[in-house]
Amino acid sequence: MSQSSKPPQPAPVPTSADVARLAGVSRATVSYVLNNAEAVRISEPTRRKVRRAAEELGYVPHAAARSLRAGHTRIVLLPTSHVPIGPLYSAFLNELQWSLRRLDYTVVQYGSLGLSGDEAARAWAELRPVAVISLGEITLSAHNVATLKRAGARAVITMGPVGVAGAHALVMDQSEVGARAAAHLVDLGHRRIGVVVPQEEGLELFSTPRLEGARSVAGAEIDALPMAYSEESAAALAARWRSLGLDAVFAYNDEYAMLLMRALMDEGLRVPEDVAVVGADDLLIGRLLRPRLSTVQIELPTGDHLAELVDRAVREPGEITQRQDLISAVAVRREST
Amino acid sequence: MSQSSKPPQPAPVPTSADVARLAGVSRATVSYVLNNAEAVRISEPTRRKVRRAAEELGYVPHAAARSLRAGHTRIVLLPTSHVPIGPLYSAFLNELQWSLRRLDYTVVQYGSLGLSGDEAARAWAELRPVAVISLGEITLSAHNVATLKRAGARAVITMGPVGVAGAHALVMDQSEVGARAAAHLVDLGHRRIGVVVPQEEGLELFSTPRLEGARSVAGAEIDALPMAYSEESAAALAARWRSLGLDAVFAYNDEYAMLLMRALMDEGLRVPEDVAVVGADDLLIGRLLRPRLSTVQIELPTGDHLAELVDRAVREPGEITQRQDLISAVAVRREST
DNA sequence: TTGAAAGCGATACCAA
DNA sequence: TTGGTATCGCTTTCAA
């Protein structure tokens, strides 16, 4: 009202000083009231004045200023995957976020698309996160971990297949998945087993250990079978199937398994008589196909569990560089094996 | 070496002052060198000294301090969905992130799990993002938009089904999807059409407009069919199917469609003779079933496109409150209709 | 070509 | 019970 000329000049963001001015108190008082400081007694009328002023101005504290002053943040950095990770991991991630928020952390998913490990680590470090939970998209080197720690990270947790020096190596070992699948097939009498390796980028951190896990099982010969997630690729693989001399296949996960199984059947092969097919992840969709898809059911840690581990690591930053296997896998036989 | 007693006291994070000290220059010079300031000429030897010192200390600038000083951030906030959004939207999101990063924005996905619109808006505002792209998980009120704008957001973009006052209402109208599906079924002679409405929370912003879209098509009677994403729920719906008197169903998306189609077939109904089924999203898996699933193929805007829209809005914060339809949908007939 | 110093916004210590 | 003020790390203007 008082200012008639108001060009699209963005109105200045209200600060705590503005609140103080409006309430007729000092900035210190504003801070005390808004943060419910217990060490200081503020009269009820003053509290109300301050709150009303804050409300009226639509005051929102400036996170950067606050953490600058505090010397630390409550940010937990969650590097975002750029590959579709499937419903299983999505659900886990959501649970994790929720649990972390309950513990009063600010979860920031940071997409690291197209960044190298070094670039990513630097970019993350700029935010001064108190913890980083790297789920494997980017392989952190010991040097990267050091960068993060030097920037104040009290916990760096990797979930990739391998431990990293200096990190709280929380191993979710995907090789177990491959091992269960192969063992399942071997139990059923199969000896020549193909293992699908997705050609899509970014899945190596899952596919490599799954393949290695299968290889670790005694009693079978393992062949790696590169395949892309497309009908063409599956058809091409199916077309040369008879020449491969395989009697079973672990198809990386349920999605690749469904694709390949369809291609094999279209090629005139019988499942499971001519070739047994097993996937992984126990997707609901796998039960809709005929034959129903056998799978490896994967049990991830609960988000709560991991969140508490993080919280503990943050509070007691003793070098708890321990290997922990938080994943479990079990084969489920349906009709395709 | 010089300090023998080193308790687990976290080493202090190196600052630009430390770099300056080590390089034997002032903090100003450090800043100039590290930011490649063009307005100032710094001698090559000095540059090298500074860079070496920064390298040696593993110096990483403090994002909070920087943006505090600058008075603004380059953060684009992307509220994270807590529902599995499927490969289609995942791919779109990734592309968007990538494009924004190319434009030098810091993309921060902020999980808003369990927050109300007000709480979420406040939490986001604390980060002082320069732009917010809300994809619909949380319905932003005009008040929320105002909060964000007051906190310095120069662009607030909503992708929900409805425009929001004050926001750059970028409408990705899901009703088009429902309309296409219904029209497809009507074209094929169906008159009594069921529309599946997922019971899962968080999908309303997609499912409601899809239902409304179907209702908008002339020539058919539309029934809403609540259903959860589980075999039990699908079976229950299928069990009472004959009593519903429907001759076709638009099953929200391909996943629900596959589930329901299987249940219907298990119930002895023929697809498409007794009941036509159409999904949406054109998932690869839908082509693997028999009959192959008809679907509505959805064309999302490219990430590049949206990123540039955001960038323009940020640079010219004129109130471009315009409705834009960036989504297109087309029915694809396979075998289930 | 380089340095000294102000100031961004919030907090917490020390006085009053 | 409340206020003044130093401080966090960084950028940038003004002087030297």
UniProtKB/TrEMBL annotation, chains A, B:
Keywords: DNA-binding, Transcription, Transcription regulation. Coiled coil: none annotated. GO terms for molecular function: DNA-binding transcription factor activity; transcription cis-regulatory region binding. The keyword NADP does not apply. CDD domains: HTH_LacI (cd01392), PBP1_LacI_sugar_binding-like (cd06267). It comes from the Bacteria. Residues 14-70 form the HTH lacI-type domain. The keyword DNA repair does not apply. This is LacI family transcriptional regulator. It comes from Streptomyces vinaceus. The lineage of its organism: Bacteria, Bacillati, Actinomycetota, Actinomycetes, Kitasatosporales.
